[in-house]
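Record 1 of the preview.
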Amino acid sequence: MSIQRLVAPLGISTKTVYKHFKNKEELFEEPSPLHYAQQ
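->
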């Protein structure tokens, strides 16, 4: 799955994602703050 496809429903650009993550793998490796907020 592409980053573009992942972020389209969020209304953000792939450029925004790559400002915070080096690549797609890093994006999936980082723990989500939302995950911890739900616990």
